[in-house]
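Teaching soon. Invent one.


***
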Amino acid sequence: MRRKDIDWLRIFGILLLFPFHAARVFDSREFNYIHSDATSLACVTFMNIIWPWFMPMMFLVAGIATWYALQKKDAGQYVKERVLRLLIPLVSGIILIVPIQGYMARLQQGTLNGGYFNYLFTQFFPDFSDISGYRGTFTPAHLWFILYLFVFSCVLLPLFMHIIHAKQKKGIGFIGHLFDKGWFLILLFIPLTISEALPDIGGKNPFFYGLYFTIGFLMASNEESIKTIENIRWWSVGTMALSVSLYLFLQDFAKGFGDFAWQSIILAFARNLYGLSSLLMMLAFAYKYLNRGGKLLEYLNHAAFPVYILHQSVMMVIAYYVLQWPNDMPLQYILIVMLTLIASFALFEAFRHFTPLRIILGIKKVN
């Protein structure tokens, strides 16, 4: 079984990367590979609004998809598919695609020594001093998502197989039944917030995202869960509307305090209540209105993963040149988004016809 509503949410997440990463070019809070001297409050506000649910959505829908994948594959087949679809594109991408971003960063910052290949072997691969890569050092860049997804898929596989076998023998069990209770689904924001207190890697917390991945799997394991999510959709809308206001207010209120100050802790709970309620709302309305396919969905499903791999390196090249044009920030932003979107899909169309490039980008062969 394939959930078309989940496919649409995944595609929505991939397409949202374009305006999100373009906004990072004009971010006043944090540096980026390519960064404008002019910053934008609108871009910062946009990122603040989508950040609490954006990447969590990607891991949540990946967890849901994993349940359905394991209904058709045994553990060995699943791991083989994960190696082909995740590990090979991850390694290939870090070697062939990601360094372009660091090269463009050093080009803009005036710290480039020599040409591209000299940069690869003297400035990118040997330098692990800043894993963000914003200064041109080694980084997995946006492919951290694929890295985490591969690790979660392998590490959590024994647990997931145990859940599947237990359901076949004994039914869904106590924990599984909790996922068709609306109150329980909303209260999941509490363990999600607590998981953020655990160690992260370069600002990306594997415990937090791994928990979202597991929640997605457990939601899918209980067929009644999506019906409950649909039934509480207006509660989710109301919770989202209230919590987003509280979250945005607390961002200023908690500014300057340490991670474990009470102000920051309250902010973390508000942020995750907003993020989770937003996702429950999206799952409900996607299930109600987007549970249909067609040729467009089929094409976008095929294109989404390779476009994800390509898009940020393409964007940094385009942003470097667009920022040299007249200083019209809204026009620059629109050009960066649209030109990157067009170029990324054009490269997908060009690459998908060649077997080696299909393997590198994890493109499934379509008969």
